[in-house]
Design goal:
Length: 104
């Protein structure tokens, strides 16, 4: 998904417990930050990485270490200084039939 000013050309969530999230990103306006967003099925959390040192009309290969232990999905997103963004669909890290919430 993108507004058009940021493109994520390639994306991978790696494999195993200790993964590396990789993404090739291209943008028009200067980037503000990229983020890795994940959930353990009970809460959503994220790691924000500043990208304010990257100027306009750029490209960059991001490689971000990620501990997938206890997580069920992860996704990558990039946002620029004008508020435009791009993000990928979540990648499932755990089997979909795992119960993640308690029943009452």
């Amino acid at each position: 998904m993108t507004t058009g000013e940021i493109l994520i050309r390639n994306y991978s969530a790696g494999s195993g417990t200790q993964r590396t999230i990789t993404a090739d990103v291209e943008w028009t306006f200067p980037l503000n930050f990229v983020e890795v967003v994940w959930s353990d099925g009970k809460k959503v959390d994220r790691q924000v990485i500043s990208a304010t040192d990257l100027g306009p009309f750029g490209t960059k290969h991001f490689a971000i270490p990620f501990d997938a232990s206890g997580k069920i999905w992860v996704r990558f997103a990039a946002w620029d200084t004008a508020g435009n963004g791009a993000f990928v669909q979540p990648v499932w890290l755990a089997p979909k039939n795992v119960q993640t919430t308690s029943s009452k």
